[in-house]
Amino acid sequence: MSIALPLTSPEHAARYRKEGLWHDRTYYELFAESAARHPDKTAIVEGSRRITYAELSTTINNLAGNLLDLGLAPGDIVSLQTKNSSLMPIVHLACNRIGLLYMPLHDTWRDVEVKHLLNRARAKVLITPAEYRGFNHANMIASIRGELPALKHVFTIEGSAPGTRELAELLKPTKHSKAELDARRPDPDLPAHTMLSGGTTALSKISRFTCNDLMVMLDNFTRTAEFTENDIIAALAPAGTGATGYIFPILVPLLHGATSVILERWGGNVPEAVEMIRREKCTCSVAIPTQLTLMIPELEKYKPTDFPHYRLSYNAGAALPYDTGLKMEQLTNCVIQSMYGSTDGGVPTVTAVKDPKEKRLSTVGRVVPGCECELWGPDGKPVPKGEQGEVVWRGADKCYGYLGDDEQTAAHFTKDHFYKSGDLGQFDAEGYLRITGRVKDMILRGGRNISPLTIEEQLIKHPSVVDVAVTSMPDTILGERACAFVILKKGAALAFEDAVEFLKSQHLAVWQLPERLELIDDFPRGPGGKVLKSALTKMVTAKLKAEGKIPS
Questions:
Q1: How far apart are CA 336 and CA 309, in angstroms?
Q2: Rounded mean pLDDT of 172-178?
Q3: Could you tell me which residues come within 8 angstroms of residue 374 by beta carbon, excluding any fewer than 6 positions away?
Q4: How confident is the model at residue 313 (pLDDT cuts 50, 70, 90)?
Q5: 271 C-beta neighbours (distance < 10 Å), count
Q6: % residues pLDDT > 90 (the chain)
Q7: 281 has which bridge partners?
Q8: Is 89 helix (H, G, I), strand (E, B) or coil?
Q9: Between the CA of residue 463 and those of 458, 459, 499, what are the distances in Å?
Q10: CB-based contact 256:229 (threshold 8 Å)
Q11: Topology annotation, domain 26-187
Q12: Residues 318-369 pLDDT 10s
């Protein structure tokens, strides 16, 4: 398929190579070097199963050869819908081996999202469960296949279904030689991996990454985390969008000769996640803030000495509350490290394990090499030093626009290739960035802006609170007011008046205080685990209408 690459100029590409940021290596080549060095070492742990580098290498080469037999052309897309599993890197690296483009699908997505993405990508091959957790994926695909003209081949995992073939056919020994597979090596400047937005406001977008630009993101992780082949990393975050939960805890270790320990599914498995870290002697983990928050009560059942190998908890996906990070370090003797970025724009800042604790827990780090990161005002110009502005950046690791969606590409990237994040931030005197809110999340109450993040950072300190999300609710007089949605600790209680008094004790101004409290068991979330604040606003709006407080 034809793929336009609009978002890195020849001048910038030359600069990234000169500065040693782009190495012109493919993911598969780096994996192959790991497999050659450590053939008998465990590459992946999933449940009771352990897969060595040699076994993984054989499976990847077999899959690559059998995909070749389907008559696929360079750049054709192979899509995989699955739980967190070893199939993700197997399919990804097999595709990269022979110049195909890998696209993941989160296992919770259904016909609307799946049909949209498969059509947008013009995917030729789909690998999907026959059935998983009581849902029949094969039936779903059968019901929409007539609307997927590009889809030529469907393979089912662990089961069979009419009109499909079993994945085992793609994993049988290949007749293709190493030289034949090597001949299909892709250009490191062409897309080799996709990450999918969580679809929090609309149907998901497909961000395209090449080996060169994605490797910059991975190199910044390994450098600041001081990651080595001796690390054993727990993959806790959702991996089904190909982003944070996949590239750092699953792909990175395989490119460096380390070990990835994959948690199949987070939901309801907090005890298993914590025990997995202890049992497998994990040195690192990758999780989103909500997961770390939910781990705290479970970790309190252990002693820090129960985790003697655990040195690093890597946080990404959203802002980590200061107290959550501090508690995590105290309970495990690990170091919290945070990354800031986006699925499509790349990573402009990251903290390092050797940064001072206050910087690690209260900022998202300093600007990475090769990145130009600025704060812009509403006029699109940089704000004065020390002031708050929208975080925008241009770097060596951003995507090459959205596949099949030039309109969205133009909306999120400027003509000179800066990515507009929609986040508000502020640099301190040492160059560390602090995220202060979202441009679109700001609540406009009677002409004054309220930052939900400011309220969230304080209310989560309440001893009864597990997690909190603040969103807008409509008001006939002031336009908008703030509503706090709170998840409480088991057996705890919290009245609205108590929440307000607590926030006053944290020195919030009266006009910043939330004016409604909603207790909730869990937040509506996107596939990547992010809170869907738009759904919370709809929820409280419906309640206000039912109560007669706003017009129906």
A1: 14
A2: 96
A3: 382, 389, 391, 392, 393, 418
A4: very high
A5: 11
A6: 72
A7: none
A8: helix
A9: 11, 9, 11
A10: yes
A11: Rossmann fold (3.40.50)
A12: 778 888 899 999 999 999 999 999 888 899 999 999 999 999 999 999 999 9
Q: H or E segment at 81?
A: strand 77-82
Asked if 491 and 528 count as a contact pair (C-beta separation under 8 A), the reply is: no
Q: Which tops the pLDDT comparison, 358 or 198?
A: 358
Average pLDDT, integer, range 42-58: 97
- Residue 154's nearest CA partner among 124, 177, 178 is 124
Residue 264 · residue 47 · CB < 8 Å: yes
Query: Would you say residue 198 has pLDDT above 90?
Result: no
Q: Rounded to whole angstroms, what are the CA distances from 35 to 79, 173, 252?
A: 25, 18, 13
The whole-number pLDDT of residue 528 equals: 67
Q: How many angstroms separate the Cα of 11 from the Cα of each of 22, 170, 367, 412?
A: 13, 42, 21, 21
3-state secondary structure 327-391: HHHHHHCCEEEEEEEECCCEEEEECCCCCCHHHHHHCCCEECCCCEEEEECCCCCECCCCCCEEE
Say if residues 253 and 34 touch (Cβ distance below 8 Å): no
HSE-CB of 277 using CA atoms within 13 angstroms: 31
Residue ranges of the domains in the chain? Answer: 26-187, 441-546
Site of tokens 């012109």: 24
CA 532 – CA 512 distance, rounded (Å): 22
**Helix, strand, coil share of the chain (percent; to 5):** 35, 25, 40
Residue 459's pLDDT band, with cuts at 50, 70 and 90, is: very high
* C-alpha to C-alpha distance for 259 and 169, rounded to whole angstroms: 27
Cβ atoms within 10 Å of 133's Cβ, excluding its own = 11
Amino acid at 433: L
Residues near 379 by Cβ (< 8 Å), separated by ≥ 6?
A: none
Burial class (CB in 10 A: 0-12, 13-18, 19+), 486: buried
Structure tokens at 32: 């192959």
Query: At residue 515, what is the residue type?
Result: E
80 strand-pairing partners: 104, 127
Cβ-based neighbours of 241, under 8 Å, separated by 6 or more? 104, 106, 195, 196, 197, 198, 204, 343, 527, 528
Alpha helices (H) along 150-288:
168-171, 178-182, 211-225, 244-246, 252-256, 270-279
Q: What is the pLDDT of residues 16-27, one digit of tens each?
A: 999 999 999 999
pLDDT tens string 497-506 = 999 999 999 8
The DSSP string of 503-538 is: HHHTT--GGGS-SEEEE-SS--B-TTS-B-HHHHHH
Alpha-carbon distance 442 to 146, whole Å? 43
The pLDDT confidence band at residue 317, using thresholds 50, 70 and 90, is: confident
Helices (H) and strands (E) in the chain, counts: 19, 25
Instruction: Examine the pLDDT at 201 and tell me if it is beyond 50.
Output: no
pLDDT number for residue 4:
47
Fold classification of 441-546 (topology level)? GMP Synthetase; Chain A, domain 3 (3.30.300)
